[in-house]
Amino acid sequence: xxxxxxxxxxxxxxxxxxxxxxxxxxxxxxxxxxxxxxxxxxxxxxxxxxxxxxxxxxxxxxxxxxxxxxxxxxxxxxxxxxxxxxxxxxxxxxxxxxxxxxxxxxxxxxxxxxxxxxxxxxxxxxxxxxxxxxxxxxxxxxxxxxxxxxxxxxxxxxxxxxxxxxxxxxxxxxxxxxxxxxxxxxxxxxxxxxxxxxxxxxxxxxxxxxxxxxxxxxxxxxxxxxxxxxxxxxxxxxxxxxxxxxxxxxxxxxxxxxxxxxxxxxxxxxxxxxxxxxxxxxxxx
Length: 285
Description:
Blueprint: E1 3-10, H1 17-33, E2 38-40, H2 52-58, H3 66-78, E3 81-90, E4 96-103, E5 109-114, E6 120-121, E7 129-130, E8 142-145, E9 150-153, H4 162-170, E10 175-177, H5 184-202, E11 205-208, E12 212-214, E13 220-222, E14 226-228, E15 234-237, E16 243-250, H6 252-260, H7 278-283
Parallel strand pairs: 1-2, 2-3, 9-10, 10-11
Antiparallel strand pairs: 1-16, 3-4, 4-5, 6-7, 8-9, 11-14, 12-13, 14-15
Helix pairs in contact: 1-3
């Protein structure tokens, strides 16, 4: 099987986990009704709680997480594969994991990935983002075996670290997930460029379900969930509205793109960069 229909669910997550499940579940059902065999949801699909104390109080361990249980049950009911973009998992008294789950069509978790790169930035939108204050970074890159091929799991800010995607592709990934809650400011500047670049560099499909709109405490996300083919073409884009996009993808296109530009096989060892112009720097001091 090389062809499958995939979907991105684009939503606007708020503070209450069960309300978010109720908001997203009908869209997952819609995607299944439209023929999607693999459905993806955004980062932090279960809860967007900017206040650290509240996030720690609301989050649950994986084994008792009501959002995970609800989505696993829905995947089994609908007979679809479901990428839960990420949910907040309690891993200690003072830390969470920003963790993605790939669930098969029987409701089994077949792979889990904890976000490696923490979003500790100040982008100029009036918000301060310090993900590491609340979340513990993951340490392992993850590839999931599926009936269609190998799929690499990443989350949001990871998209800015191309070495991760190259490693996944060189380990056999043909599809890369990058569910996100990109800020409005960074999304407008960088979102499409980064998605297309990761697809072009790896010869992979990139499937990125995204958050959209205004959230708690005035946080704003960009939307534009995308499905990008291995040649870097955007084949579906959700715009800024809540909703569902679908596309048929053919993993045979991965081999075709890599045959044209086999850059994954052209790595060469390099040493430290040589710096020229030291005399000019010293002359200016």
